[in-house]
Amino acid sequence: MWQYLAATALLAEGALGQSLGSASFLRFGCSQLVVERVDPLVAPGLNPSPHVHQVVGGNSFNVTMDPSTIDPPVQSTCTSCIYKEDTSNYWTASMYFQSPENGTFKRVPQMANGRLNGTLLPQDGGLTIYYMLPFGGRNMKVTAFPVGFRMLAGNPMLRSKTGMAPGICHRCLAKSDRTSGGAGAPCDRSDTATFPTTPCPGGIRATIIFPSCWDGKNVDSPDHQSHVAYAPGGMALAGDRCPSTHPVRIPQVMYEIMFDTTEFNDAKYWKDGKQPLVYSFGDPTGYGAHGDYLFGWKDDALQRAMDSMGKTCGSEYCDQVLTIQDGKDAIGCTKSQQAKEDVGSGEWITELPGGTQVA
């Protein structure tokens, strides 16, 4: 997908001869920190929370993440993200295969995304993170998130497209896409809001795009969404406009999650338009895919990176502004489960963790 973003950014700015380093987005990998039933955004203080999440970022991640007592850059002793300055936390629901034969579950493994250089990691698991400027609006001021900022994209309660936010989608990858991660615009006509209904030779790429406009006042809201907004027009990828209610342009965050579903590609599991996948919160449709974000960049590092887009930063190149840690150190940053249980990693389980029902 980075190829599309790079090309779009360059076309919008009339700079076809420039390199990927001129692209108006920052892209990097974060290894898996922990997989567990903890959700300090939606269910703070609850251990365990209702469903399983895969979490990356700073190891200060805990059950509450109260912004009045926890400052991730201070409390974190490591980060699973490749940039040392980024101790933010990023998390999404895990995906499971449910056997149509006996109803048991197995967590779908993840795989590495396509990579150009050392900012994407060769490990299994984790997320690829993007921070994007507005396309065609490089001169528009982009304000980095303030301390304590957090937000949610998507709605785990959805089971149909009605009320669905833009920028939540799945792509069925061809075998040749397994290494590249797939090309083309995110959430275009090649993607579906639902899980694919046929086996995917290269696995599934899930995409979650967050809002790009902020009210300029609140670091959070009761629903974790009202303080932010997508750009006018219902498009997920933002241009250079924001609604009057949310006038401050913030970096647009996007997650890519690469699921290795190839183990479950036997045609007997995919019949009559039915598919065997389900999210950890019991969603067999895919409409409820969602992502959580908790800001944790050190000092003004993110603002400096955003200000340097198209100059010394762009795509996977920002080592003149940010510090790239050794990939082994990022992969080595892990955290023990706070909600200790078998989450179905490599073993079959009789029910989704927490007894979540598929519905």
From TrEMBL:
Q: Which of UniProt's keywords are assigned here?
A: Signal
At the top level, the lineage of the source is Eukaryota
Which Pfam families does the UniProt entry name for this protein?
A: DUF1996 (PF09362)
Leader peptide range in chain numbering: 1-17
In this protein, which residues make up the domain named DUF1996?
A: 39-297
PANTHER family linked to this entry: DUF1996 DOMAIN-CONTAINING PROTEIN, PTHR43662
Q: Please identify the protein, giving its name as recorded.
A: DUF1996 domain-containing protein
**What is the species of this protein?**
Apiospora phragmitis
